[in-house]
Amino acid sequence: MPMRYVRQTKYFNYFYCVLLNLVRLLTITQMASLMPIGEAITVWQLYSRCSSAFVQIFLKHANARGQQFNHCLTDLLMHADNEGRIRIENALTGKFICFNKRQRLAIRSDGMDDKCLFREQLTSSGYTMFQSAWKQNLFLGFNRKGKFQDPSQINTKRRCFLFIKLLREVKSTRLTSCSKSEKDDQTELDLESKRQRYLYDVVRESLLSRIRATT
């Protein structure tokens, strides 16, 4: 592996870890307001604290058994409306995570239904919870095996409703195919290194401004 590639990887990993800790303090809506406007698109991944794996959408199913590198299944787009409600969409297939009338998980092509809308909640420890905007007693959750967790057990199995958000920036053209070349990897790494440094600076300044406003 070329030394330049190794140095860039270490550089990216450092700022990615720092940025991850900062992102945990902000909601998706707040992050969206800080993101630069350009050709790149923000994609998210949700790490389940209960299953120790990533939320993935495939065919007509969703679970939390995905691997971070399997971007075709685990890359998500978060669409926020003016009321702060969020729709969770698979970046490649355009399928949405929703609830059905039986209050179970359902995967749909149209995410405009109220059952596909969520509100993000941040816990004091920096984890994210997704509350249904359709019914307030419903939360998105997965058990230790990555299967759907019954929302009625949120008080006894709270850990299974906690997520860590990961984000990265990709070119919109990358969302149309799962395959990529080595040249694409290098180009994406170059872009990631620059944008992660930019995001680190922006998020850091935003948090400092909030701290200064309270002192």
TrEMBL record:
SUPFAM superfamilies: Cytokine. CDD domains: beta-trefoil_FGF8-like. GO terms for molecular function: growth factor activity. Gene3D superfamilies: 2.80.10.50. Pfam families: FGF. Coiled coil: none annotated. PANTHER family: FIBROBLAST GROWTH FACTOR. Belongs to the heparin-binding growth factors family. This is BMA-EGL-17. The gene is Bma-egl-17.
